[in-house]
Specification:
Elements: E1 2-11, E2 14-24, E3 28-33, H1 40-47, E4 55-60, E5 63-64, H2 70-76, E6 77-80, H3 93-98, H4 102-105, H5 113-125, H6 141-154, E7 159-163, H7 171-186, E8 191-195, H8 199-205, E9 208-213, E10 216-221, H9 223-226, H10 229-236, E11 240-244, E12 251-255
Parallel strand pairs: 3-8, 3-9, 6-7, 7-8
Antiparallel strand pairs: 1-2, 1-4, 4-5, 9-10, 11-12
Keywords: ATP-binding, Nucleotide-binding, Translocase, Transport
Protein name: ABC transporter domain-containing protein
Function: Part of the ABC transporter complex HmuTUV involved in hemin import. Responsible for energy coupling to the transport system.
Amino acid sequence: MLRAVNLHCGYGCVEVLGGVNLEAREGEVLALIGPNGTGKTTLLHTLGRLLPAQRGEVRLGGRALRGMRSREVARMLALAPQRAPHSAWPLAVAEAVALGRAPHRGWLLPLTAADQAAVDAAMARMRVAALAGRTLSTLSGGELRRVILARALAQAPRVLLLDEPATYLDLQHQAELLALVRSLARDDGLAVVLTMHDLSLAALCADRVALLAPGGLRVTGTPAEVLREEILRPVYGERLEVFAHPASGSPVVLPLAER
């Protein structure tokens, strides 16, 4: 559904990542992992056309992303950033979520019944319906994060890009988010790409993980294949350990404390 082909991305003439070949498939969660500064958000923004590719290309549904009209892309792909660019605007939550319908109705036309149903469903799914009348500036960080995700869901995309979606969320809401992400892929058939710092959370929600290292993509595979000490230590440093969770068997990655 979404593919990077020999993708080079960065800012201006500064290359952050080079030669990336990566595919996000329908019905699958792909987690982009790597230390700070390795280009996870840069890659995500290039996949979502917020940043132009320096070389190579991104393909969406088999077509070159750069040749598609913005509205056409927005009907297929939604990106939920870490922060809402309009969070300081005097918008109510319901109004902010309704912005996700713009690719389907335009900016100035009123919501149709179908639009309103999509907005209501997205707010219910992210459990922000009770906040519908609140302005964005009054929300906590966790509440705002869920509103950002609700807006992306209201867009009804086939590809969903999430930048650090667990940011500001407590443990209960992290668990709910992970369940939602997996449901969007497995039940709704979306291709979901997300960036994550927490490798153990990535192992719980992702079907595949892509490990970024300075300069490029190091390896892609299942969490069990990639989250191994011999693979992670050259990238993250020696002071970490990996073990299998006793109940789920999922890889758990922890730093080794100084003694």
